Amino acid sequence: MARKIQQNVILETQLYNALDKHEFKVFYQAQVDTSNNNNIVGLEALVRWISPELGMKYPNYFLPLSEMTGFIVLIDYYVLREGMKQIVEWKKNNFNVPRISFNISSRHLKEKIFIEKLKNLLHETSCRAEWIELEITESHVMEDLDEAIDILIALRKLGLTVAIDDFGTGYTSLAYLEKLPIDKLKIDKLFVTDIDKKKINQSIVKAIIDIGKSMGLKIIAEGVETSKEKTYLLDIGCHLIQGYLYYKPMPAGEIIKELKRIKDDTF
Ligand code: C2E
Ligand code: CA
Ligand code: CA
């Protein structure tokens, strides 16, 4: 116990230093539309810590502690700013980039000044609200539904879109789903893995697709790794896909190369 506490104290100090030294980097994972030439229709911003001492560290190494201490708010803010600056630069260079989606922790969302901070950041970076999407996990929405609805309404008023992340894991009552002012559901990898073989996953995902579509929501499946999973999803009406089958998360320089290559191949 004492050792764990000591390790956490060390990690917390390292994380503050890492932020100061700009060691956090934003990677982007492309989302494709399998019903339309596998066009890239979105990018999800995913944080990485590139430590000179420790190498590349993934969110599961530093986000649980960051959630506990509140440091996550600083990470989210950093990723939002970097991502907004990036899309503005791409647009300035006339690159045809799709919307970028950002993961927002509930700690951040619950801050009274979150909407104000977001507005200022959009202004400061010259990023347009319609260029971005925010991802909020289902379990976070369910923590305090009324509060979440107010925030979601305010976010969409700004002109950005909202996706519910890890959908299916947070036990949203379907009656509540209708109340949520959202644009998209992201079906969790848990239900996507082996969907071509697992009957129970098939039933769950079919239900999510039917209900989501009847509410006019976009549906995207996460963590798609095999073409069998992709084909099954397409057959039941889910054509938006995010997963290693198509793209892994990559640094900005690589994703823009890929977007340019696709464009050049088209013309
Ligand atoms: P998430 O939002 O559910 O993001 C999807 C995760 O699944 C990413 O892991 C991504 O790399 C991984 N993934 C995508 N396709 C596949 C696949 O086909 N197979 C497998 N096995 N994995 C796949 P990552 O980047 O390690 O991020 C983990 C989690 O950390 C994210 O889960 C998100 O909850 C959180 N996170 C990442 N960046 C941020 C951030 O800037 N702010 C906040 N608040 N959370 C973040
Ligand atoms: Ca996400
Ligand atoms: Ca997810």
Bound heterogens, unique: ligand C2E, calcium ion
Q: Percent of residues in helical segments?
A: 40-55%
Note the main sheet: 8 strands, mixed, barrel
Q: Tell me what portion of residues adopts beta-strand conformation.
A: 15-25%
Q: What pattern of helices and strands is seen along the backbone?
A: HEEEHHEHHEHHEHEHHEHEEH
Name the shape in a single word. Answer: globular
| Derived structural class | alpha/beta
Strand order of the largest sheet: 1-2-4-5-6-7-8-9
> What is the terminal-to-terminal distance?
61 Å
Radius of gyration, whole Å: 19 Å
Low-confidence parts, pLDDT < 50 over ≥5 residues? none
Number of helices: 12
Tally of extended strands? Answer: 10
User: Which whole number gives the mean pLDDT?
Assistant: 94
Describe the structure in your own words.
It is a single chain. With 267 residues, this protein is α/β, with parallel strands linked by helices. Helices cover 51% and strands 22% of the residues. It has 12 helices and 10 strands. It has helices at residues 2-20, 59-69, 72-92, 106-109, 114-125, 138-143, 145-158, 174-177, 189-192, 199-214, 227-235, 252-266, and strands at residues 24-33, 39-51, 55-57, 99-103, 132-137, 161-167, 184-187, 218-222, 240-242, 250-251. An 8-stranded mixed beta barrel has the order 1-2-4-5-6-7-8-9, surrounded by 5 helices. Helix 1 (2-20) crosses helix 2. The protein is globular and about 50 Å long. The mean pLDDT is 94.
